[in-house]
């Protein structure tokens, strides 16, 4: 593998060079949240009276993220808890407004439409989301049937027998017994609720389906049903997916490409199998090493040492992984590594070529 | 196992009344966890794992009814105890981590103050010291910048961070029994390892007994001393961990192990377990609720099985088990 040293920053150069324009094109996307409680109301008023600008500390939840998803492509998104995965997908699905950057769906710039207005946008039906917390997407006052029917009615205009047929088909496809369709969320088990959330999003047949940990609450058997369904819809309808998951085994099997995020930034991306078989970024390495395995009881015993860096106003010149990274040199503390291309991969580590050379 | 278990559940049966019939959610569920040990409960979605936990904690849905059984926490039967008696031990002696953390937290109070409350109420921590101790607990569960994060509201935290706040709350009082319902499903593997180590440390240091509900067989294999396999409201196998994986005896257990994606080369190669859980509202539920899906079914499978003991070496609820 040869390493080229030119830095890549714009969205279009990431991933495999697409022949058609990609379905989703995300460029230099940023989302920051002010940290609450740091000043308090009195403190803020006092500052305002002094006339100075109010600088609140911010969580850098998503920091300069660029990638693309092609038609019929499945992209996995993995990373530590709190690294910004859900925030990223909420910005993409236009539930949150970005602090900066672009989101293009099929060539159309979406980030200009405020989140509030996007709910009524015609493109709403082209992008659907399965939430991390099934409770979030499923209204407690809706039966499972009503929950699945709701977007079909609103976005696809289905009514009557056609609606019922479509809801039942979606339930069947997701392994949700029809007998459960009359139940309310609190009468369902965690995994049954999760299947309602998936059926609801899949039924609309969006061009892009964003799934935030859809299989976390599912047992292996149901999980297989869902994964095989996603695979089938991809071949039959050319659906594309962004699949957020902590289950590396599932990502490896389902995804064409994977993005590895650490504290708001993509630190590695490339073909899923290659990334997990031979991680180039030390964080990816740590992630792979920590996964427990049924067939190798000794696996998953390696721990990251050191204190993680705070996502609140991080130093722009220090690698976010510094302090926990087994490598961690003075260079890592003085210069934030940019994503660089290595064959089919992008890696943000000053020492990636040492690993590729091995 | 000679010592009195920290928690003993015996012959627990639960049903739910719904508009369309009675759901037989649990039938004669028995198991025990000794002090300092971890018992994993695994099984398909809808098999009754959470309902078991809710029944023991006394927080079943109002439509649910415990029709039989006992749950002994030391000398106290939690199922027969008065509401006051249960309230006195809940959160202090026996604590639970819920499957859906965001809904279990109070949305309008900061996470730091929610943890501090528990410390004051259940761990005899002086009011003045509680906020500082809450920050320590946040650090223990791997939350960075804990002093500033203590002031955040649940909606300002990620899914996995809420989950870890829940865990901090459950562990705050150093309970003697912890019921953890999928405590790490929303966590990446490195954070998961931090949490499981923390639970393991408490088990060792204060002899906490843990009931660990999970879908992740690999994690159960790594962390549990003993495994209970549930199917459609029944305990169908109960064995020491190494033994269960080396020699599963119930055909369902064997299927469950085979369906783990761990080593599969492709999606197509993965097999889901044929059939599905029977409708638990049926009045003609067979004695073995797996029989209709079972490749090893025999004629005598329709006969009632003797109830399984809570403290077995290796118990399997099957007439024709694998050898
Ligand atoms: N309030 C209720 N009314 C009717 N049925 C219920 C109620 N609560 C739970 N059930 C049913 O009881 C069965 C067991 O549910 P439980 O939540 O214990 O499953 P579980 O094993 O925890 O599954 P999961 O892994 O999906 O969380 C399920 O079939 C569920 O639909
Ligand atoms: N509404 C908000 N206000 C303030 N901070 C927020 C808000 N939403 C998210 N954050 C912060 O942004 C960061 C990223 O959160 P996000 O939910 O995107 O993480 P995640 O990668 O999805 O994590 P997990 O795997 O735990 O779900 C976290 O530090 C979180 O506290
Ligand atoms: Mg998330
Ligand atoms: Mg459950």
TrEMBL record, chain A:
Subcellular location: Cell inner membrane
Keyword match Flavoprotein: no
Membrane topology qualifier: Peripheral membrane protein
Keyword Nucleotide-binding annotated: yes
Region of interest (Disordered), residue spans: 1-25
Pfam families per the UniProt record, alphabetical: ABC_tran (PF00005), oligo_HPY (PF08352)
SUPFAM superfamilies found in the cross-reference section: P-loop containing nucleoside triphosphate hydrolases
Alphabetical keyword list: ATP-binding, Nucleotide-binding, Transport
Annotated GO CC locations: plasma membrane
Span of domain ABC transporter: 43-288
Location, primary (coarse class): membrane
UniProt-listed GO biological process terms: peptide transport; transmembrane transport
Residue stretches of biased makeup (Polar residues): 1-12
Source taxon at top rank: Bacteria
GO MF, any single term: ATP hydrolysis activity
Ranges in a coiled coil: none
Family, as annotated: Belongs to the ABC transporter superfamily.
Protein name as annotated: Peptide ABC transporter ATP-binding protein
From TrEMBL, chain B:
PROSITE patterns xrefs: ABC_TRANSPORTER_1 (PS00211), ABC_TRANSPORTER_2 (PS50893)
Any GO CC annotation of this UniProt entry: plasma membrane
Chain ranges of the ABC transporter domain: 9-257
MF term (GO), any: ATP binding
Major localisation: membrane
Cross-referenced InterPro entries: AAA+_ATPase (IPR003593), ABC_Ni/Peptide_Import (IPR050388), ABC_transporter-like_ATP-bd (IPR003439), ABC_transporter-like_CS (IPR017871), Oligopep_ABC_C (IPR013563), P-loop_NTPase (IPR027417)
Keywords for this protein: ATP-binding, Cell membrane, Membrane, Nucleotide-binding, Transport
Cellular location(s): Cell inner membrane
GO biological process terms on file: peptide transport; transmembrane transport
Chain coiled-coil ranges: none
Membrane topology (UniProt): Peripheral membrane protein
One Pfam family linked to the record: ABC_tran
Similarity annotation: Belongs to the ABC transporter superfamily.
PANTHER family with a match to the protein in the record: DIPEPTIDE TRANSPORT ATP-BINDING PROTEIN DPPD, OLIGOPEPTIDE TRANSPORT ATP-BINDING PROTEIN APPD
Protein name, entry field: ABC transporter ATP-binding protein
Organism: Rhodoplanes roseus
